[in-house]
Each structure stands twice: as structure tokens, then as C-alpha cells.
């Protein structure tokens, strides 16, 4: 059958979302995200580089372990997988352009149904990437990053690159090749490795050392292939702790940085950090951002939040101004995201079933982060927070403290200094004052 492309409007009655300012009562307008507003020398659009997630927005059906899906999509009805994929692309690019987002992100199996035959699946990915290329040219929307879903298929129940069966590893490699090829074709700014099942359920049947080495070997193999075939973008790893395995090899920022350093991959990669994954790892989002930034690895962000009464990755849209203001201050201090953007890896709630709900969710998320950017800029411009932090470590800026940082003092020297100075004075960390200061700007 021939595939029909671009014949339908799926979000009728909804026009392109515009900026109307903080006093607007229009639920389908931005109050804070003014893409052309200059903040710290760049437009909001350049700073934030918003991307729409193909998976949750156009594939997620609202199902959960206790019931089937509640989101029924008019673009998901054709019997032919290629036609369904083309219809979904029509809906996706209509939504993305109406939101005014400059980028999108996708997994291969979000874009088109998977096949058990690698050749057939490669053909399908080539087909839909041709459509994406046409849509990008027509709309000006660009691909922030692509990735492969190496966790949903039953063959990956024990991992993909870390699977104990080499035949599964080979299938993972075939899928990675197709996804990388599509990303290169579409001019993707980056490529993400999202280790959905790269971990273990029990050490009783796991050779962890060997699996980690296989994971690193696959990353080296992919980097070599991509560079040889013209990929010039950034590679990202997205840390995640215990979901769905008992222990993920990419647990958090510090774990991933250590892994990349151990296997000589540090120069090729940055981190794509997600709020909800930070929560599940027992950290704050700001902690994960700071660890990455301190190591020159803060490159891209997934925007969502978790439910703090729920130990699962609920992927709700971001609403926490304080959380994002802290994160954006870290981003601004390092001069911006290093090669990535901000992707809405977030989904409507199961009972949010209207087409407009998808717009409300993204409008709110984009406004939250835009407002956080403005707050972060005010914090840095005001300067007191950074001055107080610098003053707290002033004893290392000169004298013996500076000599310690420079490695000039022996342990005997520290002993002698301690005996000479006596008991140090208590110096307040001013935590409550700083929390109040943050609150003033919010």
C-alpha cells in the first residue's frame, strides 16, 4: 500500500502558543517563556533549547500495572506500521511547531514499530527518518538527539550491551547502528545511551566485572562507527539508579563519570541528567548537576519531576521553581549546556485525556524553566550567594591554606599548624539566610 503523509490536522482549534506575559489568563499562552528575550547575553531559546519527547507525548497511552491505556490517539489506528508511523509524524510535528519548540528527541521504536528481523526494522527506521528529514526541512524543527530502545523487547530482559548472551549483544549492536545512522541523517546534535536494563537483578548469576567491560566495549564500538560515518555531535549517557533492575551500572553522575574515566571514554561523552532519576538515586537535581558541572560533564537535561511519596519514575511535568532555579544557576555559572538542551521526558497523568492537556503540560513546564532561568540570572547578577560561598572558603585563598591546596604541606606541617593556632572559631554556614535569599528571588 502507498503511505499518505501530511493530510490531517490532529490538534484542531489550537493555534501556535504565544508569549503573553505574566498577567495573562490564557491557559494556552506563555507567561514567562519569551523565546527572544535576552538573558545573560543569549536569548531564552538559545539558553533552554527545548525539545519535545516523542515517546511520552505521542506514544504513551496512560496505561499502568492496574489498567490499560486511557489515551487514545487518532494517529495510531492504521493497520500498516509505516502508515501509523507517518500519521504519528504528522501529529508530532504539528504539535512541536504549535508549541514553538526548536527541537525533538526520539527512540527508534517510538518513531516506528519494532520488527524481530533486523533488516526489516532497519528498513522501517530508514523510512521514518526520511519522513522526519522532510518534516524538519518544512518546519525548521531540529533533532536534539536520537537513541535506541534497548529495554522493551523481551530479548533484553537481561540487558542489551551487558547481556550474558552474545547473540543478544549482537542484536543490540544492530539496533544501535540503525539509530545512529538515523541520527546522523537527521543532523542530530547528540546521541544518548540510555541503559534501561544495563544492570543486574542478582549477583548470584552476574559477572559484574565482565558486564561492565562489555558495556564499555559497546560504547567504544559505537563511538568509532559514528565518528567514522560523519557524526560530529556529542554523545550522552543518562544516569539512572534502580529502574527497572536492582542496580544499574549508570547509577548516578558520579558513577557514570567514574565509569567513563575508567574505560577511557571521558573525552567523547557528556551527561544527560533527569530530575526524577536524581530523586530515585537519593540525590537532589542540583546535586547531580553540580557533580556533572564540576567535572565538565553537564551537557543536557531531561525535564520532569517525581512524586516524593512514590518510589518510582513517575515522569511528571516540572513545576518546582526552587528546584529548577538552583539547577539553572549551575548551568549559567558554567556558561550554558555543553552540547545538549532541555528535553521534556514527562507524561500527562492517566486521567488527563484531552488533547489540550498535552499543551497545558508543556506550557507549564516551559514556563517553569523559563522563570527559573530569570531567577537564576538575578541570583548571579546580585552576587551575594556566590560571595558568601567564596567567603566561606577564603582561608584557602592565601597563606597556609593556599599552600595546602597546592600540595606544599606535609602531614607534619598540618600537625604543627594545629598546635600553634589552637581551637578554631566556629563559623556559621548561614544556611537559613541563604534559603531565605533564594526565596527572595523566587
Automatic annotation (TrEMBL):
Names of required cofactors: Mg(2+)
Cofactor info, note text: Binds 2 magnesium ions per subunit.
Binding, Mg(2+) 1: 238, 274, 302, 345
Residues at the catalytic site: 107, 110
GO terms for cellular component: cytoplasm
Main location: cytoplasm
Keywords: Carbohydrate metabolism, Cytoplasm, Isomerase, Magnesium, Metal-binding, Xylose metabolism
Keyword hit for Metal-binding: yes
GO biological process, one term: D-xylose metabolic process
SUPFAM superfamilies: Xylose isomerase-like (SSF51658)
An example molecular function term from Gene Ontology annotations: magnesium ion binding
EC number of the protein: 5.3.1.5
Matches recorded under InterPro entries: Xyl_isomerase-like_sf, Xylose_isom_bac, Xylose_isomerase
Superkingdom per UniProt: Bacteria
Residue sites binding Mg(2+) 2 per the record: 274, 277, 313, 315
Family the entry assigns: Belongs to the xylose isomerase family.
Cited PANTHER family: PTHR48408, XYLOSE ISOMERASE
Protein name: Xylose isomerase
Lineage: Bacteria, Pseudomonadati, Bacteroidota, Cytophagia, Cytophagales
